[in-house]
Amino acid sequence: MRSKNTSIEDGFILVGFSDWPQLELTLFAFISIFYSLTLFGNTSIIALSRLDPRLHTPMYFFLCHLSFLDLCYTTSTVPQLLINLSRLDRTISYGGCVAQLFISLALGSTECVLLVVMAFDRYAAVCHPLHYTTIMHPHFCQALAIASWVGGLVNSLIQTGLMMAMPLCGNQLNHFFCEMPVLLKLACEDTGGTEAKMFVARAIILVFPAALIVGSYANIAQAVLKLTSMAGGRKALGTCGSHLLVVCLFYGSAMYTYLQPTGSYSESEGKFAALFYTIITPMLDPLIYTLRNKDVKGALLKVLGRNRD
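Request: output the structure for the sequence above.
Response:
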């Protein structure tokens, strides 16, 4: 990522929301609250899943990984945003920008793969209940989790490497963190070939997993329709509905940002879309998974009762 007009050592200026100074104080307050809720909610899910033996199942094993991803992904961007909104410092070094780009891409890509794994878990539970424990063996679950992390890291390495090879002009990023579409806007030369490769990489990590999730839920829907018990159907839909809602929130906002051609990408709209998948979705995930979940509520009451004693 070489800059023609400015020295690499100068880094970048993150414009953030300085175009709307009247919004900065309000955004600072709300984002601080949302970030605190994200930390509390996702940490609570991880802690409860470890403390209560009833939650030592594949579903909660993967949910722990999702919560950890949400914690890391939010933390990779929000502290920088809060500093930006407080007007203390709007700059980021070249090395910091590359690190932030790599980390956010790695975590986001890992979540794309992990959501497929979680859909497969629900497919196995609903469509093959008698063989579920055999299919979702602990060793197999660990292998799927590792594959999710490795897939995310490989995708991030490819895209960050291609991005660093591009010559950039200017040092102002009209965003609150170093995100791929905004960096592409600074490209000095015709980089159509490189951008096409990066677009293919983004499409693979977004479209292919989304197609697998749709296929899994199509099979789940067929299995639920064949159930003679209404209670069984409601239980199956309840366990899958939370995951499907998270999938729609995450993939919808990610596809809107990353599958747009660079020329039609709106930086102003992109900033508000990024707020959604970097702050709102990680905050909502714990609520979505636990709001109607009796197991998690029972584990929470058990832990609270133990503490009172």
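DSSP finds eleven helices and five strands in the chain.
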